[in-house]
Hints:
Layout: E1 2-4, E2 10-12, E3 21-26, H1 32-39, E4 55-57, E5 63-65, E6 71-73, E7 80-81, E8 84-85, E9 91-96, H2 100-103, H3 110-126, E10 134-136, H4 137-140, H5 154-159, H6 180-191, H7 201-211, H8 222-238
Parallel strand pairs: 1-5, 3-9, 3-10, 4-9
Antiparallel strand pairs: 2-6, 4-5, 7-8
Helix pairs in contact: 6-7, 6-8
Amino acid sequence: MIRERWSPNHDARPDGTPIDTLVLHYTGMQTAKAALDRLCDIDPPAPLPRVSCHYLVEEDGLIWKLVPEERRAWHAGASFWRGHETLNGRSIGIEIVNPGHEWGYRPFPALQMAAVADLCLEILGRHPIPARNVVGHSDIAPDRKQDPGELFDWEGLAANGIGLWPAEVDGSGAERPEGGMVRAAALLKRIGYPVDPANPRIALVAFQRRWRQERVDGEADTGTLARLEAVARLIEADAVPESLAG
């Protein structure tokens, strides 16, 4: 079920900018009502900024539509993915109700994930968003965000045609090879992450929250490197123009 509660917090998208990115968040607030009110607040207390998203999905699967897709919602903030910055102008944002790491992070219920999957498929049917550009908030802002986090079912979404997942890749190796972090930083850049040369571990933790959820420790061990290489291959294959893909 989709209900409407229109947020005042949006503006026009930049001229000529495609909608080619889908960003998934968790709300990180104690209740769905608090999150909904926050996303629709035109005058939040200082120093909080005005924020919004296009959709909010509650734990029972109820979906709220807050901003028209053709408008720019304010959900991503300072962000970067695969050469593009400030992704609000080119993205659709979905907030998924979950208290997050601050308020008691917990698994996402099956009804909620089913609603997220259905909503994503509808959005992907309306916009030419490639699988490589279905991202989490922590992917595009790893220095300040953790959501939707290591309990989010990215693998299940990929099985339904939403985003990518490296199937049958052994990520259990815990050995730490010499030069592993240098290799990890290069792979993170290939995938599309913003990588701080002085501290690539920040982006690596974000990668693990998404792609190696069983071990989120920022270590460039053999299991993490195997997943990095597999994801890099998937991303690069997805980026090959159809005319060249055979």
